[in-house]
Amino acid sequence: MNDIQQLHNTLAQAQIRITELELRNEELTDFIENAAIPLHWVDKHGKVIWANQAELDALGYTREEYIGAPIATFHADEYAIGDILSRLATNETLNNYQARLRCKDGSIKHVLISSNVRRSDGEFVHTRCFTRDITQIVLEQERMSDLIRQLEESETRLRMATDIVESSYDAIISKTLDNTITSWNKAAGQLFGYSAEEMIGKSSLLLVPQEVLEQEKQMYARLERGERIDHFETKRNTKSNQVLDVSMTLSPIIDVTGNITGISKIIRDITERKLDQQRKNDFVAMVSHELKTPLTSILSYIQMLHTKAKRSGDDFGIQTLARTEAQTKRMTQMINDFLDIARLEDARIRLVKTEFELEPLIREVIAEIQVVYASHPILLDACPEIKVYADRGKIGQVFTNLISNAIKYSPAGSDILISCALKDGKVEVAVTDHGLGISKENQEKLFERFYRVEDDRTRNISGFGIGLYLVSEILRDHDAAIHVKSAMDQGSTFSFTIAVL
Ligand code: ADP
Fold this sequence. Notes:
47% of the residues lie in helices and 25% in strands. By secondary structure, the chain is α+β, with helices and mostly antiparallel strands. The longest helix has 42 residues, at 271-312. It starts with a helix and ends with a strand. Adenosine-5'-diphosphate (ADP) binds at residues 337, 405-406, 409, 433, 435-436, 438, 446, 451-453, 458, 463-469, 492.
């Protein structure tokens, strides 16, 4: 082989080598340009000098916007990029350095940066920077920690609420809508004598006495409409079969979707309070009643003296005895009102129903009233042998109040008429006077507690505004209602209807 031929061969081999190298170069360039991992180089001044497509795509910048710009521009934390660059400058290799990059659309990407520096003859040429997007993971972690924090907070709140419930002086229980008890605190155990283990899962109806079952159903109907019921007084049975007077506050338990899933109850034992109230009422009733007896005889003596003074023409006696009589009547009226207040409480506490005839009761009331007030003729019209099943004392109270009012609010000498009418198995009883009458507006309010009509005509008539309220409460307990028909200055008729036997 001559020299020329040898040269040819060498050239041909070099050509093949160059082609191979070019191919290799092309492959490597393609590999890093199109790799799925974001890559970039930064020069010793901190400027981006190259970035692959994945990096541009990840952050959303064009090549022109990215290349040539200081890398710090794209970092959300100044401190982090300062730290990265200074550590690379001292030849450190960074592995999974966590940083935050700012994208073109303003959003932040959480990334892990792995990088070191390419040097030539010891001189900084550029960094070799790999970026891994971990935004999803970080956001997920943040969401998780947020959830954990919320969970911890609600656990704390729940623990606090449980502590409060457990240490409460009041019994607190909850149950499902089908009356299954789901929680039972310590005070419930003390009040009813059953432990939580005995009661959870059982029916709450175990605690409800027969006599209040109907009332209980009405309460639930209200709760199911989403109402809350405060301080409602009722009765409950204990494990030892004692019946307690209790005050209950009931609230619906509403789940996240707004559905009522159960009922919570706060129950307080008011047996002692009720007994105290009862003793106080009994005392007031007893004192008022005792006061009335001597007053009634004082009145009849005054009336006798009055007649005597009239007969003997003793003007001074006539005048003073008339005033004394008026004052004594006032006092009797006030004692009656006072008695009403005591009876008002009593009406709610106990109702004793018996069978009795209406007419004798009305006659008794009339006789009792006429001892004190002879000023108005009281006429009883057609109340033949009508029997009712009711609380005799309390229905007597209704008559006393209506007749006393008829006298109080009508001029002396005018008639008071009591009538009965049978209709559809019921009797309608009415008390009619020819007195002051009541305006339409006042008629609506008469039965409210402590309501009195305040005008020139009633100013000097004493009272507490309790009589008609008591009448309506007593009748309500008998499933009856009081009605009024009245015309100003002409008179009024108060009537009610109750079932006959
Ligand atoms: P009091 O008589 O103590 O004020 P009531 O509750 O018995 O209380 O009556 C409430 C009000 O109704 C009275 O203040 C009075 O104005 C009016 N009223 C009651 N009965 C009559 C009546 N028969 N005629 C006119 N007004 C009446």
